[in-house]
Structures are given as structure tokens and as C-alpha cells.
Amino acid sequence: MSIFRRPDYQSEVTQFIDHLKVAKPTLEAEQRQGRALLWDKKIDRNAVKEYGEARVEQKPYVYQTDAK
């Protein structure tokens, strides 16, 4: 190692996250469980295609009535 080398810079946010991970080792597992609950879902591509095909076009002015 060079005598002129400075220590690697770490921002306050990085230091905070590192301390948080040390204080609560289960944090990453809990985050993964939360993500799996809402985001990591299998998509039925056929159903998505059918939903798109079944969509009804919206009229230009939604509140216009057809009664004349």
C-alpha cells in the first residue's frame, strides 16, 4: 500500500446503512420478504393480452350523453 493513499471515502448515508445492518442483521431478509409480497409476482401473459383486447375505447368527452 502506498504511503500517499487516503482511506476510501464513505458518505454518511453509507455509514448509516452499514451501522443499521450491523444493528439489525435480519434487515435484508425482511426487505426481501416485503418485496416478494408486493412486487415479485409471476405474470400471466395470456390474461394480460386478453385484458388489452377486451378494453373498450373511451369517448372523447366522458360526460357527454347520447340523448338528443
Question: Could you please describe the fold and organization of this structure?
Answer:
0% of the residues are buried. The model has no long low-confidence stretch (mean pLDDT 88). The chain is mainly α and 68 residues long. It is elongated, with a radius of gyration of 27 Å. The protein has 3 helices and no strands. InterPro entries: DUF3460.
Question: What would you say about this model in short?
Answer:
The chain has 68 residues and is an all-alpha fold. It has helices spanning 12-23, 27-38, 45-53.
Present the secondary structure layout.
Layout (H helix, E strand, L loop, with lengths): L11 H12 L3 H12 L6 H9 L15
Organism: Rhodoferax saidenbachensis
Protein name: Acetyl-CoA carboxyl transferase
InterPro entries: DUF3460 (IPR021853)
